[in-house]
Design goal:
The structure is a single chain. By secondary structure, this protein is of the alpha+beta class. The protein has a single domain (about 1-335), classed as Porin. About 15% of the residues lie in helices and about 45% in strands. It has 6 helices and 15 strands. The protein has helices spanning about 1-25, 95-100, 125, 170-175, 260-265, 315-320, and strands at about 55-65, 70, 70-75, 85-95, 110-120, 135-150, 155-165, 185-195, 215-220, 230-235, 240-245, 245-260, 275-285, 300-310, 325-335. A 12-stranded antiparallel barrel has the order 1-4-5-6-7-8-9-10-12-13-14-15. It has a two-stranded antiparallel sheet with strand order 2-3.
């Protein structure tokens, strides 16, 4: 057990310091609205290294041209012109519960805690009251992921708390009653990610990896919307190895709005369930581990170029709530454990 912990311990200590310390330091700047691919669409995919440590640690820093979450652009103001950059940091600390207690990896699921920060260079134009504080949003997510092996599907149950830092004062000064506490919200979610290799055995009999990798996610807000709004996503993606260490991953996500735009963006339409937006994505990633001569026991590192097109659909677009937009950026990710 000591051999397992000698490397795992320092990494866990650094991870906890980043998640707790960074959250406190950022929160001290004040208390806004901003992811959340997404889903937070800025997360890079980094292959885990072989390790006996039951803990996993992922750190991703992303620079994006816009912060668009569920079709809504939270980083644009009238006359912006040249894009002000969004800086995003995701820190994810997880634990393989079965491996932790000496059982077969994955049999008890994976418990994780993630923190996501978003800093917008043009925040002063959106919220001049707070003296130019650029921190826009902090999200805290607790989740449990479990493989349903009988149906080749990963099931995730989670809860996210959204803190729109620096928004409190602005809400108290605006002319709208009843929204003074809308600087935070929270939602429960479930997600199913399916390995569809079985469906293509007639074409690729030796393949065990997913081809279209269909996923279904349901997010139910229990904060600002008080249980009256939900967001549903159906997604597809496939990773293509181009050559050694370089991959290209196109993706597609269909978002379904159930009162979400009404509760969070002031859509004048009444209670309704309808198509919200489609998000088309392209992730081009290069594994930097060997280039940087990082030993396998210390994890892996990857650089990614990201390009997205958010395609607004139906009445939300007609009502001016969302619009068609291209956006993109660059991400650097590090992963340890697994």
């Amino acid at each position: 057990m000591l051999a397992r912990v000698w490397l795992c311990g320092p990494v866990l200590a650094v991870a906890i310091a980043l998640m707790v310390g960074s959250g406190q330091a950022l929160a001290q700047q004040g208390e806004t609205v901003a992811e959340r691919t997404d889903i937070k669409v800025t997360e890079t995919k980094v292959a885990p290294s072989e390790s006996k440590c039951p803990a996993t640690f992922d750190l991703t820093y992303t620079v994006m041209s816009d912060y668009i979450f569920r079709g809504i652009n939270y980083s644009e103001y009238p006359g912006e012109g040249r894009e002000d950059l969004n800086h995003q940091l995701n820190v994810d600390l997880g634990m393989d519960l079965a491996k932790l207690f000496g059982h077969d990896p994955g049999t008890w699921g994976h418990l994780g805690f993630a923190t996501w920060f978003e800093w917008y260079a043009g925040q002063e134009k959106l919220n001049p009251i707070e003296g130019g504080q650029n921190l826009q949003e902090i999200d805290y997510t607790v989740y449990w992921k479990y493989p349903l092996r009988a149906i080749e599907t990963d099931f995730t149950l989670g809860w996210t708390f959204y803190d729109f830092a620096n928004l409190s004062t602005l809400l108290k000064r605006d002319p709208f009653p009843g929204n003074d506490k809308d600087d935070t919200t929270n939602e429960w979610f479930v997600k199913f990610e399916h390995n569809d290799a079985w469906l293509w055995k007639w074409l690729w009999p030796q393949n065990d990896a997913g081809v279209l990798n269909p996923s279904l996610a349901v997010f139910h807000d229990t904060g600002i919307a008080a249980g009256n709004a939900a967001w549903i996503e159906f997604g597809l993606n496939h990773e293509f190895p181009v050559f050694d260490k370089l991959t290209v991953t196109p993706s597609w996500t269909l978002g379904v709005d159930h009162n979400y735009y009404r509760e969070f963006a002031g859509d004048p339409d009444g209670k309704t369930t309808r198509l919200g937006n489609m998000l088309w994505g392209l992730d081009v990633s290069y594994d930097l581990t060997e280039l940087l001569r990082i030993p396998a026991r210390w994890g892996t590192m990857r650089l990614s170029g990201l390009l997205y097109f958010s395609d607004a659909l139906g009445n939300p677009e007609n009502n001016g709530i969302i619009k068609d937009e291209f956006f993109g950026g660059v991400a650097l990710g590090y992963s340890f454990g697994g």
